[in-house]
Amino acid sequence: MNPTTFIISFMIALSGLAFYQTHLLSLFLCLEGMALSVFCLMAISSSYTLSLSTIPLPLIMLTFSVCEAGLSLVLLVTMTRTHQNDLMSSLTLLKC
Questions:
Q1: Which residue ranges run through the membrane?
Q2: Which of 84, 91, 88, 1 is nearest to 45 (CA)?
Q3: What distance in Å separates the CA atoms of residue 28 and residue 81, rounded to the nearest whole number?
Q4: pLDDT the model gives residue 93
C-alpha cells in the first residue's frame, strides 16, 4: 500500500474532527480514524526500514489507541448519564 493513502485518510479524519462538532460520538470516531491511519502508516514504515528498534512502535501506538478508545467510551457513557445526550453544546463551561 502507498503511504499517501494513509496520509489522506488522516487528513479526512482531521477535517471530520474540525467540521462535525455536534455530537461527542462523531468526534471520538474521527479520533479513532486518525489513530488507525497513524497505526497503519507506522506499520508500513517499520516494515520498510527493517530495523529492530522500529518494530515495536506500531504495537505501542495500537496500545495507546485502545486506551484512548476505552477512555472515550467511559466519557461518552458518563456524559450520557449526566446530561441525557451527547451533544457538545451541553458541555459549555460558561453556564450561569
A1: 1-21, 24-44, 57-77
A2: 1
A3: 17
A4: 64
